[in-house]
């Protein structure tokens, strides 16, 4: 008989989607520029001083093409801009525009409210324990057969 117990990566994915859906719904209700979950993820991994598309793709765990498409949509929406990379004539840095900074701050406030709502549903002690667990150093993933 197969177990119906869901594995941890599935549960973590559901938790991430809960926050993404809440964030997207709140942004839409505020009349913000519509963005996709991939674009939300890109915003979350973008450095304040700017980040290359290749680095964004690595941090997001997506192809460079997927990251580039997300960047292109956010540039077209006026939330990101491309600027020359100071150390490389071949690369460009992606960074937030003034409007993008405003959207990023607004998203941060929405995520804080969502976390407060989660604490109201499951308890602050559980939210604190979850945060502590996720902030712990896990080390590198184990390599099968290398033990």
Automatic annotation (TrEMBL):
<dbReference type="InterPro" id="IPR036390">
    <property type="entry name" value="WH_DNA-bd_sf"/>
</dbReference>
<dbReference type="InterPro" id="IPR036388">
    <property type="entry name" value="WH-like_DNA-bd_sf"/>
</dbReference>
<dbReference type="Pfam" id="PF12802">
    <property type="entry name" value="MarR_2"/>
</dbReference>
<feature type="domain" description="HTH marR-type">
    <location>
        <begin position="28"/>
        <end position="127"/>
    </location>
</feature>
<protein>
    <submittedName>
        <fullName>MarR family winged helix-turn-helix transcriptional regulator</fullName>
    </submittedName>
</protein>
<dbReference type="InterPro" id="IPR039422">
    <property type="entry name" value="MarR/SlyA-like"/>
</dbReference>
<dbReference type="InterPro" id="IPR000835">
    <property type="entry name" value="HTH_MarR-typ"/>
</dbReference>
<dbReference type="InterPro" id="IPR011991">
    <property type="entry name" value="ArsR-like_HTH"/>
</dbReference>
